[in-house]
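Usage

Read records sequentially. Each one opens with the input sequence:
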Amino acid sequence: MKQTETIFVSGHRNPDTDSIVSAMAYAALQNALGHREYRPARLGQINDETQRLLDYFGFPPPELITTMRSQVRDLDYDMPPVISDAVSVGRAWAMLQQDGHVPAVPVTQEDGSLFGMLTAGDIANHNMQSIDNPLVERLPLFNLLGALEGQLIQDGGDDTISGEVVIALQADCPSIHPGCIVVCGNHQDVLERCLEVGASCIIVCRNLWNGEIELPKDCGTCIISTPFDAYRTVRTIHQAIPVSRLCRQEGIITFHLNDFTDDVKDEVLKSRHRCYPILDGEEKVVGTLSRFHLLRPRRKQVVLVDHNESAQSVPGLDQAEILGIIDHHRLADIQTANPIFFRNEPVGSTTTIIAEMYQEKGIMPSGKLAGLMTAAILSDTVMFKSPTSTPRDQDMAKRLARIGNVSLEELGQRIFAYSTAGTKSARELLMSDFKEFHIAGNDLGIGQVTCVESAQLLERKDEFLKAMDALRKERHYSLVALMLTDVLLEGTQLIALGDDEALNQALNTELKDHTVFLPGIMSRKKQIIPMLSALWG
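and closes with the structure output:
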């Protein structure tokens, strides 16, 4: 039985603190309400600011996911019994009959790795061949005794039995020859004849062994007593053979849990097999896949926070089922097949909205989580100096700060006073909080670094321009910009590369050597993007 299906809560790519914390807080809220398993996720590397805050409040980073494409792990695949390569054919047949809808069962080695695949047809084919060829080789004695429900009368000194299986009704039976396996009754003349010619094994049927015959010393013949009749005994001998002898080992197509179902469909269409083994990351068998499993694959489920634009979301989102969106940005292009929970409010931080949801449900976040949520609001509103900041953000931050027993001023200084200028490359700083936009046929990307030392960062302008030029060519942007938003100056040093004329018109300014200071500009989504959208229509 499969575990409860996971619902991922995901922020945007190149996540900032608000994106990470809102995903964590919403997942914690839903789990506290007793709903199914909600799990916070991230779509990229955590920046230094967020990592410091997670460490400070004692939280591990959310799980990294790279795609929402449907994978084999999302299918309702079969989990039939997995049998060892040492299991007898008869026992394997019983397993196949117990689960009749499974066309094949995996055969594994001792470590759980795949050895082969066994079908009912393989067993039937083996039984038919045994009629024309009654020879058995190296049949384990343990298997034979178990299959025959037999009692070992005499050990022949070997753990395996080999020879041609014959039924002897009388001593002059011409089938009795050296090295054969004789199935007989308790006829003394027959038994003596078998011992005389050197049969490898004597099987006495219907438990008729009475022990009257004197066995020679150091006799190399194995003697077994069984309650079965002669016919059943002969058929059972061939069913005691290990499945490793007849299972299919060549040409097996395997799939892994992380394989994408689109790729699996293509591979299945090229083959005619009815059943395919599924392996985990350690090459252990976890189940089997049939064609009908691919008809209606179960889609991953996700709740989006702090974004509602496909370009900023997880790859493969079109194959996922979106259950909800909680955001504070403009409406973008994500479409859903069914109505969903959607909450979009004009506040400075998505975490503010989720904190209000805690309040509405009558649930108080833990002290550590409340402190982390406070930090997320301070970060996204730039200590309430961003034009996106609202009184609701300030009121909620104060309330959370009291629950978390933290100081807004001290926490704000901890967030913005730390400089990464000397430890990170220009490319890393550019991508630490980078978002991609598509406006009226124009593709652009804007990064933002919130700091208290914009002048120090501006000294690296040439490095930034080089990194921006490489990114522009790599992703075919018409414009790449980097906002060095200074909390103390309450403005932004803007570095731009590409369509300078469009920026000059949109912002009513003039870039000089790709740079301009924009007083009062603190927000990418509420100030820069709306101006460009108005310019490009």
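Summary fields computed downstream for this record:
- The first strand starts at residue 7 and ends at 10.
- The radius of gyration is 36 Å.
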